[in-house]
Amino acid sequence: MIKFESSSHCLQFSGEDALISEGKKLVFQSGKYARFADGSAVASFGDTAVLVTAVSKAKSSPASFLPLTVDYRQKAAAAGRIPTNFLRRELGTSEREILTSRMIDRSLRPLFPDGYFYETQVVCNLLSVDGVNDPEVLSINAASAALAISDIPWNGPVAAVRVGFIDNEVVINPTRRELAHSQLNLVVSSTFPNLVVMLEASAENVYQQDFLKAIRTGVKECQTIAKAIEKLREDAGKPKREFTVLPSGSEELLSAVKLLSENRLRVILRDFNHDKISRDVAVATVRNDVMEKLRTSFPDTDPMIISESFNKFFKEFFRQLILDEEIRCDGRKLTDIRNISCGVDLYKPLHGSAIFQRGQTQVVCTVAFDSPESALKSDPVSILMGGLKAKNFFLHYEFPPYATNETGRVGSGGSAGRRELGHGALAEKGLRPVVPSDYPFTIRLTSEVLESNGSSSMASVCGGSLALMDAGVPILQPAAGVAVGLVSRVNPETKQIDDYRILTDLLGIEDYLGDMDFKLAGTKKGITALQADFKLPGVPLKIIMESVVQASDAKSHILDIMAQTIKQPRNDKKDIWPLSEKLEIEAHKRPKFVGIGGSNLKKLTAETGVQITSIDDLTFSIFAPNQSAMDEAKEMIEQFLKEEKEPELEFGAIYKARIVEMKETGVLVTFYPKMVPTLLHNSQLDVRKVAHPSALGLQVGDEISIKYFGRDPVSGRMRLSRKVLQSVASSVVKNLNGKPPSS
């Protein structure tokens, strides 16, 4: 049910279904903020509100693609916080902000019209974050509203929801706490009529049927939001501006391109001995030859138009061969997977390593262990917005230029590019559910792409799973990933798909010339990650369902091949593996163990490389890079705790103690030589109230009589009192300082 309340371009609606919970309303508003922008809208849910603006230049870009930029920034002020960096202000873009920006971009880009190459920027400004409701999905809906009411040509609206799966029930737009207990974290972007525009998911090994149910439910709920945005556009939207499409080739030019290149391209695309490089070279040779001839035949035509005409024909011809003959350019059938080879234990100094080769995509993965202190920690604002406090497992993905026979900058000042961050985050999602959360080490998995011809992120899942097993990590089940694509034929009148083919194990050229990049990762049991991007303005649910099933079948086949190399985590330990043990220290011995100002622990780390981490008041965790370091550290710990046999103190007995230090709160005393000084508090010095020990005339070196009441069972500290001796006479005074008792 949708209820409208009109008030100066303000629209709000509430539903009685699963979309709205606890009486919260999803509200869209326009016409109040940022009115200079081509389009602006505020979306709020609960006490979380996002302002999104859209601006597009009036002059076309010289590029033959849409230069769309999406900027999503987490504002500490929106959460009522101050940034934790030195300058106390927002600095560079964080990884989470980049990944959210990419997700919004992928939801919006397919709905821009063909030929619209005008520079466009979408900025998401968080106004308030309540720590309960999700600002990321809200930003997709606000961006959709801003573009819908603007004069920017855009075929929206698009709507998005986050879908959880809790106690075998699908939950729409779960809160931050609910999401922490959900087996599924799925974002669905959809448009009319029930067309999927974008999918992004991480899952705890969710069964395929439950995953498909979640997608269907998410698409259904998106339709309600899309209708509300469409109503807002009708009430407050501007007429869409006219734009100039880059000139295309004439029918005569296209016919000439076809005549000169069709047979030659057919020979290339049906020569299954070609690899990525040789095929690209052969096609480039044909392109250059055709362009040279057509420049002579069409001297008045811009060379760029000739080039685009060739590209257009090549794309259509490539897709036509797949649709008509169901044979791909490398000779595979639609569901065939490229040849796979893999290996583990590549180099002895590595904790774990693996190589995974699928066709011409080659990935090397390595595992490194470190102490729990090396866990990747998040800033408070990211945690408040739904991020993890700390990760003991993280994956870093590297894609150097030589992987595609190119030159370029390797790395960029230690930071990965947006593409690398996106691919690495997806591969990490695919593996994180199978890594035990209570593993005693921090795990860093690196994936370096050495050759790339499609689906390197899914190859990273496969190689990463092998490397983790080689490192002895007790993963729950091996995981693998695969990418599937789509080639379709769209009816120009109805704009609906008349015919299509789903391609398993996508090649780079099939990704570039196709309609879909659908990546799925998981185990034999279920699905752990999904990311789907579409170049069409929406894909029917039927194709999505088929893609999930086809990708799941391919994933299982890949897991069978991987099992021929290693089936389960290795049990035989490598000499270079680190060790982790727990050590219990009695509370009264803790000062000796730690040392003054932590000096003993610092010395231990400097000399042996062993790190000590406090778990609780009595227990410490010892991390050692190898067995020899652990043995050396244990010897040092024994020395720290070694002491002469302590005299057994009698409960209720009176002892002579020497004052060794004066403090504001009391005096430090010892009963016997080499004893760790213990505090006698001011409250136990005298029956009168004592502000400072000097008020009683006490000095360092004085001997005083003290009654002993045992140790505190929690802290282990001695419980001492001089006050009780002020009122009751004592006849037995014991001296443990090696001197006879004084009178």
Automatic annotation (TrEMBL):
Keyword Transferase attributed: yes
Keyword annotations of the record: Cytoplasm, Nucleotidyltransferase, RNA-binding, Transferase
Cited SMART domains: KH (SM00322)
Signal peptide segment: none
SUPFAM superfamilies (alphabetical): Eukaryotic type KH-domain (KH-domain type I), Nucleic acid-binding proteins, Polynucleotide phosphorylase/guanosine pentaphosphate synthase (PNPase/GPSI), domain 3, Ribonuclease PH domain 2-like, Ribosomal protein S5 domain 2-like
Biological process annotations from GO: mitochondrial mRNA catabolic process; mitochondrial RNA 3'-end processing
GO molecular function: 3'-5'-RNA exonuclease activity; polyribonucleotide nucleotidyltransferase activity; RNA binding
Keyword Transferase attached: yes
Annotated Gene Ontology cellular component terms: cytosol; mitochondrion
Record-annotated S1 motif domain positions: 652-723
Pfam families (alphabetical): KH_1, PNPase, RNase_PH, RNase_PH_C
Family: Belongs to the polyribonucleotide nucleotidyltransferase family.
NCBIfam families attached to this UniProt entry: polynuc_phos, PRK11824.1
Protein name, entry field: polyribonucleotide nucleotidyltransferase
Phylogenetic classification of the source organism: Eukaryota, Metazoa, Ecdysozoa, Arthropoda, Crustacea
